[in-house]
Structures
1.
Amino acid sequence: MVLFVNGKFCKNPKLAKADDFFASGLNIPGNTNNRLGISAIVADVNKIPGLNTQGLSLVRLDYAPLGENPPHTHPRATEILALAEGTLYVGFVSSDEDGNRLFAKLLKPGNVYVFPFGLLHFQFNPNRTAPAVAFSALSSQSGGTITIAKSVFGSKPAINPDVLTKAFHLDRKTVELLLLKNA
Amino acid sequence: MVLFVNGKFCKNPKLAKADDFFASGLNIPGNTNNRLGISAIVADVNKIPGLNTQGLSLVRLDYAPLGENPPHTHPRATEILALAEGTLYVGFVSSDEDGNRLFAKLLKPGNVYVFPFGLLHFQFNPNRTAPAVAFSALSSQSGGTITIAKSVFGSKPAINPDVLTKAFHLDRKTVELLLLKNA
Amino acid sequence: MVLFVNGKFCKNPKLAKADDFFASGLNIPGNTNNRLGISAIVADVNKIPGLNTQGLSLVRLDYAPLGENPPHTHPRATEILALAEGTLYVGFVSSDEDGNRLFAKLLKPGNVYVFPFGLLHFQFNPNRTAPAVAFSALSSQSGGTITIAKSVFGSKPAINPDVLTKAFHLDRKTVELLLLKNA
Amino acid sequence: MVLFVNGKFCKNPKLAKADDFFASGLNIPGNTNNRLGISAIVADVNKIPGLNTQGLSLVRLDYAPLGENPPHTHPRATEILALAEGTLYVGFVSSDEDGNRLFAKLLKPGNVYVFPFGLLHFQFNPNRTAPAVAFSALSSQSGGTITIAKSVFGSKPAINPDVLTKAFHLDRKTVELLLLKNA
Amino acid sequence: MVLFVNGKFCKNPKLAKADDFFASGLNIPGNTNNRLGISAIVADVNKIPGLNTQGLSLVRLDYAPLGENPPHTHPRATEILALAEGTLYVGFVSSDEDGNRLFAKLLKPGNVYVFPFGLLHFQFNPNRTAPAVAFSALSSQSGGTITIAKSVFGSKPAINPDVLTKAFHLDRKTVELLLLKNA
Amino acid sequence: MVLFVNGKFCKNPKLAKADDFFASGLNIPGNTNNRLGISAIVADVNKIPGLNTQGLSLVRLDYAPLGENPPHTHPRATEILALAEGTLYVGFVSSDEDGNRLFAKLLKPGNVYVFPFGLLHFQFNPNRTAPAVAFSALSSQSGGTITIAKSVFGSKPAINPDVLTKAFHLDRKTVELLLLKNA
């Protein structure tokens, strides 16, 4: 029998020890040698059991030159990001009710930006030669990530192309290209 | 001075009357004479003041033949939908952590489907001649809607095309097409 | 060993499938051939495992001519009701602190009414020949129902008649009648 | 303009003083010279402004010989009661889903009993000569009270007698008696 | 396998009985024959299984003459206290952001005082000959207690004395005395 | 009239702009030229209006050689800390119920540590020559800080010395010293 409480096992508190509240490795640059030029090193409840029920997690984000964290949402968290190195063009888009307004900003080291609960957002390193490094906190032990390109055009199995054709106001060929590229 | 509590004014409870808990019009088909063939008639806190702090709202959804409610998320709500008339192909996609799996189903009248909190989902009427009608409840007085096509490709102002080109693994020309179509 | 999380087993998310988010049968009129002339077909977490932790459920309500959903409360939910067919006299009563005011309304198809969290409410079909049909959403995966007649006069075992005699300002004989009728 | 936050004004925290967290008078027996033989002296947010947002309140309950706190619910609170003097027959009834089971107990001084969130409950002093005194805490700054007799048979205006006749399985005359007695 | 839900086992609701909501003994003075002259008799979820998920617990506090409940916090609860007998000097201190202001009051029988969520507070019986008795409710099924003297100077193992020396602006010898006395 | 919602004014969402979600300066070392050798630069709702209702804030912590963030609690937040530079001895103490156990660890750059909700904790730079820098996230828009030395021995006005003498098991003279030093 497998049982999940908040998706995680609960430990007998009497058996908890310091290492249950500890993680390491956020000083080591992540591998950004991928198409998007992005790396996320996550310190959430999956790595730190003591975060269970504590509503918080941490992420180190590395961006290659021109690397990006593509448009995504966190279904269960607000995010606050602090830029440590480089420059970063960041933004979120408000909901349909607010007119899908873009709230964007070019960040320099020491700048902080908030991505409100559940809204679509992204980060992009506009520098052609220098990497960027940021640290983000999320208001959940495991906020989840919905990367739009993956969720819309890369789901398994794929969403019916007719749905996507109409949704994005495109011809069938372009949608098939999107599906192919993001599979 | 304008003050917002949960985004809404609170009324002196002593002055509340029956009409503050009432709305009408969910029996009248919405106008689906638009590109997507979709209409949403919303009964939320903006129409029913008595819903303030009550965590609930209702929507009537009309779908033209081949009409659709395109991929979107609700940043602050779970949704449960009941199909009243027609057929409806519905689905949601789990988060990146779960492998972006598509949970889809073809609904017939009287069928009910759940779109879990914050996840990307859609509804599509696959019938070429008959409309469809559904009723949805959301677990928020005002759950918000993030239509992906609008939020990613139709924000005001537009997200930097370089960001979108990389995010969707596309050439610049296709992205410009997407931006143009969804503006 | 039997373990309950929010009163329900939690499933390993990796094993979830589309049918865990699905239910059927809300298009079929319920059987109202009972003393009250009422039927409730519930789509809650007991029928849809995927509703666990999602804070929402749905109900189809059928009313025979002169049928009613008698005065009751939901200890863990707000309710929003939409009338689909017929007419319905609905109401809720505010708490003692507000003077037990009745907020009532005669609903026609397409009308929507809210029963605020935890308050006593009812629905009654005043039509002598036509049935009525409504759909309700509740802000809980399992909001619970406390039907007053059953809870006060039909508990097992019965509440001490002395308590009820005094509470309702009645003679012993009438209370015994109430106990007998609602047992 | 009148504005309510959680139904109460919020004070500038800098202006708070000790008296905002203080109340007096719970040592003085309440007046039980009424039909039910009950008195409730409440220390909630209406008396103690500092309770705002703190989710807690306190009540002193005095019971005349054969006095009772009649069947009622608290729409927004759990209650825990400690008997200080006398004897008290207490009970709550589980919801319809659990079969409306009565959980009752005869309390002696120093006994504690819990009335779970939103469930119907009562207290009755079975002693013909001695009063009883209890103290209760509620898990809300203002939990609300729905006294069943008042809410069902004493609302203003009255609920349609047809509704009540059917709900309680009674003849019209008995319902009119109930309405008259509890008006 | 041992599993904890909110730190407690959940029982199959169908097996619940009246005794799961019951505790006794709050009428018996606790033993205050200790250095602080204090006794706390707790009625929380560890004693009353039915409190699980109900967000409430109760405590009887006995104070010897000059006895005290030393400065402490409850990490998960607000507290409301009613003085039953004697006199009690009570107080809480606001946070650093509010200037660590002391909100203190001398209570007489029947007086009520609130200790807001998470703030440091204490109670002291200033009477040299008479005991005092109070009852407190906490807004948690198990609010936890952090007695400052124990947590800072009596932890197991001890906090590095250098940390404490600097924190309290003291010489090493005084800190060692504090550690020794509170071990 | 001054009104506070969660202690902060709510802005009309339509008027929000990117700068409402932005702060700067977390790249600049804080001034640790004080007795404790500590600096905290806070990015919370007081600096970033867009954090209102978002349940999150960020802090940069600078520690001089042998500097420390003295024992304290956050009444409304969990904290997760990442060490950026130097070494840091960190720890928290569990509640009385768990035996006041110390969970301590010596952190190196890239290490992460969690301080659970409401528990007493501290950080100390044991290095005699090198500073340390850390970043912490808190699960509240404004978690509050209760520095124990200030709250117990530095409140305004002071807590009655008799209370402290007994609480810390000390002679009057030592308590007066503590009060003097921490005033």
2.
Amino acid sequence: MSLTSASPKAAAEEAKSASHILATLPTAARNDALTAIHAALSEARDDILAANARDLEAAQRAAENGQLSQSLVSRLDLGRKGKWEDMLKGILDVRELEDPVGKITLRTKLDDGLELTRVTCPIGVLLIIFEARPEVIANIASLAIKSGNAAILKGGKESTESFVAISKVISAALEKSQVPNNAIQLVTTRDVIPQLLDLDQYIDLVIPRGSNELVRYIKTNTKIPVLGHADGLCSIFLEQSADPKMAAEVIVDSKTSYPAACNSLETLLVQQSALESHLPSVADALIAKGVVLRCDKVTKEILASKLSPELSSKLESAMDADFDTEFLSLILAVKAVANIDEAIAHINIHGSKHTDAILTSSSDLAEKFMSSVDAAGVYWNASTRFADGMRCGFGTEVGISTNKIHSRGPVGLEGLMIYKYKIRGQGHVTAVYGEGEGKKSFNHERLPL
Amino acid sequence: MSLTSASPKAAAEEAKSASHILATLPTAARNDALTAIHAALSEARDDILAANARDLEAAQRAAENGQLSQSLVSRLDLGRKGKWEDMLKGILDVRELEDPVGKITLRTKLDDGLELTRVTCPIGVLLIIFEARPEVIANIASLAIKSGNAAILKGGKESTESFVAISKVISAALEKSQVPNNAIQLVTTRDVIPQLLDLDQYIDLVIPRGSNELVRYIKTNTKIPVLGHADGLCSIFLEQSADPKMAAEVIVDSKTSYPAACNSLETLLVQQSALESHLPSVADALIAKGVVLRCDKVTKEILASKLSPELSSKLESAMDADFDTEFLSLILAVKAVANIDEAIAHINIHGSKHTDAILTSSSDLAEKFMSSVDAAGVYWNASTRFADGMRCGFGTEVGISTNKIHSRGPVGLEGLMIYKYKIRGQGHVTAVYGEGEGKKSFNHERLPL
């Protein structure tokens, strides 16, 4: 890893050329580099935490002057209980994952002595743009090395001292490994993001990890493919046959277990015929957890007639915009729909293609919902918060993608891979194949992997 | 299929909403629509060929005035021997392909009663921008319907009469099928391309089929992902241990079997130590086929000393720019390199990541080349012209992609698919899982597909 003071262009050029070496390293060489990084970071704990303390102190001052949010300050803190250990453990976890490079996914015999193979390979150079959390640098460096991709990292300026300290240690560790030092570069100079986003000849994929604003800015300002999501506007459709107790539990978990997460619930659609039977107990449970309900006219009237005057007084009226809003807080938009078709249509128009769920006891309706809703995750009787790489068993997560191509939903190492086609022949030419007289035809026999 | 005079925005909005219906249709409904299209086109042969004749006549006049190239005029002609029959056969070929929708590619037991499934599904709305060839419309409509994607087609204005005639027939055929008419839309109004490229809220993928200029224009002018390639700058590295006769055959096939194709050879790199032993016979064979060799200093000197004065006089001197040029004609840039490393470095800098080959009898060198060269296709002792969906056994081809994400190389139906994650639970919530006391842990058992 080099802490580059070079221009963004030079950094990207070096990363590209390092990526060509990294892509050919065997599994062991990439794993050994992770072992070396882990050991070097363990040893440098005190220095890094001291650098982090300086970042923290500056941030604390900025927060007191109202220039930074307190939540950002707390995300900066590498000394917080368990954070340092988690960061180190993450490196070893990534090392233990199956090697995603060089997997054969297709083999076809084209003709005698002529074989086609499709083999997974790294994408090339990743640009990862993230905000405050300094532990992300170790996490991303591990994922990049494991997957054989070079990476350019650009972190938030609040963590500069921590980043520099970590990157010096990683750099020294890589020096002793076969991974080229330039394969992982940290860019700290200010205002380089627009220049980096312009380098589509060197950079193959941008992964933004940060606020919706950051992601939206990046998507609008680059020709390089972007993996991620700007919005997580997740909806649940509560169908009349759902078990009311189960419904309340899933909705409460989806909304309240971590309201700031992208996989949290933002819109609840309730079938007209379930308004009296199901909605009041759901609303009760939500309000008890501190959720503010923004209800459309129909749902507000029903709730007002069923809830105690004290609870009723807490209901708010929804405006149209509430059904297009990712609140990321304890606010929930609530709306009545006539049936499943209306629910599906609402979600396909207002949702963000992240994760949506149906609560129902009918498997037919569940299957209909899951095939009709256009989203990365479509769940039946389960919390939207299962949309997470760790929970889904992907080992680790690069992010959650709402893209319609390449990688969708929680993205693990697989999302950092592409493939190439290899053909091994014995001097085969194409001109001899065809339909006419004396022409050969292809064999196209699928071979075992 | 509707021949829309609506605004591009309205067309895209309708296509999006049709895509949600199309995505849920069973295999039989999509196949039946293809059968109906095939029958209707067969029946309307005379009308369509008459419309095509009018396009052809106008194009012929334009060609005579020097406003159109003769090769474009010939690509317009649907009446040319075999073309109509091929177009119709293509529809049935696509119908017979395995259904790419709804394939389960991952199943994981997350916990008792909680299962994750990854299922292939259509991408959504495709925008296909193509130039003259009128048969593409039937081809693309078939691929879109088979893969469950809606498509907006924008063809070159030279084929307007043919397009309108074909699209009316397809439209009438779809009326009798379950595929919504708006799923396939033909946009004929002029100058709509910039507006279409701006509709990233409705259109999920752009597939340009046409000249490098068209592709480059599209890539620079849209936020929507683009599948395809602008350049096909294919190289061959001729290593010293290659069989000279085999080398000449493969190089001649790569360069001359269809020089205008993107998978044709443009740069020949010859190992220094093979210049005397291999290059003269290769050059002989190429010149016999009418190829003009643009040689660097070293290769030109060797050839001048080995070839007859008559052949020598045909050699040209290469300039630097020739090694970055996709000639698409019978011109080949030739350069000496010291060894395989220099060849790989040259290709990784000057190539277009399309298809590159090594000719060698050493499997070690071949494997090194194939893992180190960063291209969609890396071939050993085989012509670059095998880079083709039909030849590779993909059934049909949407195009050849040099993208580093999603789909690379010859793209078949698979490239028009993405996946969604379905979770089927029984009221599962996330808050109960974790590391602390009394928390549950995940099962994460991989289940058979």
